[in-house]
Amino acid sequence: MPHNLDMRKIAPYAIALLTVGCATVPVVPRTDPASPVGEVAQYLARIDALDDNGPRLNAVLAINPAALRSADAAHAMGGPLAGKSVLIKDNIETADPIATTAGSLALKDNITGRDAPLVARLRDAGVVILGKTNLSEWANIRSSSSSSGWSATGGQTKNPHATDRNPCGSSSGSGAAIAAGFAWAAIGTETDGSITCPASVNGIVGFKPTVGMVSRTHIVPISHSQDTAGPMTNSVRDAALILNAIAGADPSDSATADAARHVTDFTSGLGSATLKGVRIGIMRKQVGAHPGVTRLFEQALADLRRAGAELVEISYDQDASMFADEGTVLYYELKQDLGSYLASLPGDPPVRSLADVIAFNTAHAAEELRWFGQETFEKAVKLDDIAAYRKARANSLRLAGKDGIDKLMADNRVSLLIAPTSPPAWPTDLVAGDHYLDIGAGSLPAIAGYPHLSVPMGAVEGLPVGLSIFSGRWHDKAVLEAGAAYERARTARIPKPTFRRWGE
Length: 504
What we know:
Blueprint: H1 7-10, E1 17-20, E2 23-26, H2 36-52, E3 60-63, H3 67-76, E4 85-89, H4 117-124, E5 128-133, E6 150-151, E7 155-156, H5 172-179, E8 185-190, H6 196-202, E9 205-208, E10 228-233, H7 236-246, E11 279-283, H8 291-306, E12 310-314, H9 320-344, H10 354-363, H11 365-368, H12 375-380, H13 386-412, E13 416-420, H14 443-448, E14 452-460, E15 463-470, H15 476-489
Parallel strand pairs: 4-5, 4-8, 11-12, 11-13
Antiparallel strand pairs: 1-2, 3-5, 6-7, 8-10, 9-10, 9-14, 13-15, 14-15
């Protein structure tokens, strides 16, 4: 969608040009330009050329009007993040004069004037908040037949590797934006797969931290049991740099009470991290049946073996009740948590509860409900059996955590588990919704609240696929170290975005 960028301010900083289809766009160099304002301007020019024009990726919802003028001051703060441009998923509040919409027209005027604690931490580290990214509306919880990456405020986000293919997950705009070179990094959020899947299909790094490592205050919620924010970047080291800034306790978020004991320098040792002698469990049944993904995964396993890892085959069947109970938990907590968030908003928004959102969507059906409904909302608003909810949470948490990841690691004497993150991107289909293949094991760390990293491991017919690495609670640093070591060992070619339809 157009962002009304002033190209007169931006054009002087375009130091190189790239022809993409009919568009000539600025190339942002891998090294920092001399001027921090120039770097921001180059990103803005690229957004104008590829998001507002050209292939129109619809990855960016709003530009921070203060981004350019704040760049020099941010850079002057010093430190590894000073002057770096970061995009924020549009379910996370910023104090800038732009709305936090969660993709819904109901919140199109929701300018709260406050920073989420994680955003405040980024600013304190010298980050330039470049703007907001598109997302699956309400973080993809409204309907089971949705098209990932669609919101009423931003339209359908496109995958820059194949513009007719899906960007996956609710952090779709963040994933597509980093793949397209619209910022140095982005922040996404995940409840189950919404950081790692878009990272996988867009060919970037995505890290979902342990739930409780990063504050969720002033983030539009789904579930206090499973929600977390995390970095989406071009390298594991960049993800660790972001985590250094955003991790920590927040008195307003009780889940972070133990975070201070686990916060460390997540970049320390990444450059020398080794897989030699590290026992890693292969989630063989979660590899799926796609031959292209299987070939990529086998190449990744060969790379890991050459790097010295000891690979252990694991046979694991996921319990169907874990997923059924996860649904109960998410729907119950959605009603409570979203209702509390909406009730606390400043100003006079048209929605103060989940029931209000349902009514708003019904009243604006032409814009909100054309492509898919809100049956999940309608189911969630009726849930009030707290005993059934508590039973479901206990069972899903046990199956994913104690009797899932923890047991698999203990029984097989491994410190990490791996699988492909997701299938390759499927064709976007607004009429029939998403078309997932049964690949990956990301629901285990999502439900358990454990750290999960997706690192690019190559491509199938030009479509990226990630490698999932996950472990136990608070083992965030070990997961990042393994990811950095794998990056160095990887032999697969990592594709560059084409900004064209697949096959063209």
